[in-house]
Specification:
There is one protein chain. This protein folds into two domains: 31-115, Rossmann fold; 139-270, NAD(P)-binding Rossmann-like Domain (Rossmann fold). It contains ten helices and eleven strands. The longest helix has 21 residues, at 7-27. Helix 6 (139-150) crosses helix 7. The chain is globular. The two termini are 29 Å apart. By secondary structure, it is an alpha/beta fold. Bound molecules: guanine. Guanine binds at residues 94-97, 119, 139-140, 168, 274.
């Protein structure tokens, strides 16, 4: 029997676990605040940001949103970030990526106050995570760890294969899986577009994390029987639907489900967890800023 992991349910548990802490912080005069910044007219980015704002409202986090025209000067974005850094009601700042080509992405990541960097992308926070002293774990990798825990998947000593080497998912999940820490201690291989024989690697894996951004790259015949398969892909592919597209993951779900022991669906797997862990990081940021200790789920 294959377990199809319900990311919506696990994310709801995380949100429920945050509510009391949010009210504790609010009572202490530090209701958590998250500012999102969007400098794009990409429909997917617009959807992601509005879902993040909706999540804030649902749990009692003060959400605020700044939108900049994609052709606005880069300095407008840096000024916005500077204002949010200085605003005591804002505990977390998220600049939705990608930003337009004329904006230096690395400068954006460095501009955000590391104590408000709820994405965990600032070099200081990346460094802390790599050193085994994370302040904010990046949301998607952290969400993957929570999913593995919810399904009682043993990572210790497991052979894990991460497909994809992005800064947002591939690199940080690799790092978390190799940490000498709970939900780590895996023997982890990173595969990418130059990997010679991907299937030979994935077939050896107890855990496969597919995060390459390639629709249905990982098929059932590439998996070991009983493997845990975490699908991070969110690919819009043309389809004869009302919207003209459908979402597919980086895993061919039907064939993979035949071989996997545990698998995440798309949508409804990793995506909701990414959003839940953003709320988690925002609550953590507010707690640290206000110096009010709270329990985190
Ligand atoms: N674009 C795609 N994923 C993410 C994310 O996790 N954070 C931000 N800021 N932008 C993204």
């Amino acid at each position: 029997m294959t377990t199809v992991l319900d990311g919506n349910a696990v994310a709801a548990d995380v949100r429920d676990g945050l509510r009391e802490s949010i009210e504790t912080l609010a009572d202490a005069g530090a209701r958590p605040g998250l500012a999102t910044v969007l400098m794009s007219d990409d429909p997917a980015s617009e959807t992601y940001v509005s879902m993040k704002q909706r999540d804030c409202e649902e749990v009692g986090i003060d959400g605020s949103h700044v939108e900049l025209a994609p052709d606005a000067p880069a300095e407008d974005l840096f000024d916005t970030v500077a204002d949010l850094n200085a605003d005591p009601a804002v505990h977390g700042i998220l600049v939705q990526m990608p930003v337009p080509d004329h904006v230096d992405k690395r400068r954006v990541l460095r501009a955000i106050d590391p104590a408000k960097d709820v994405d965990g992308f600032h070099p200081e926070n990346v460094g802390r995570m790599v050193a085994g002293d994370p302040r904010f774990k990046p949301c998607t990798p952290h969400g993957i760890q929570k999913l593995l825990a919810a399904a009682d998947v043993e990572t210790e000593g497991a052979d894990a294969v991460v497909v994809g080497r992005s800064d947002i998912v591939g690199k940080p999940i690799t790092n978390l899986l190799i940490q000498k820490a709970p939900l780590g201690n895996a023997t982890t291989t990173v595969c990418h577009s130059r990997t010679r024989d991907l299937a030979a690697k994935t077939r050896e894996a107890d855990i496969v994390v597919a995060a390459a951004g390639v629709p249905e790259l990982v098929t059932g015949d590439m998996l070991k029987e009983g493997a845990t398969v975490i699908d991070v892909g969110v690919n819009r592919v043309e389809a004869d639907t009302e919207k003209g597209y459908e979402l597919v993951g980086d895993v061919e779900f039907e064939s993979a489900k035949e071989r996997a022991g545990v698998i995440t669906p798309v949508p409804g797997g990793v995506g909701p967890m990414t959003r839940a862990m953003l709320l988690y990081n925002t609550v953590k940021a507010a707690s640290e800023r206000a110096d009010v200790p709270i329990d985190l789920p």
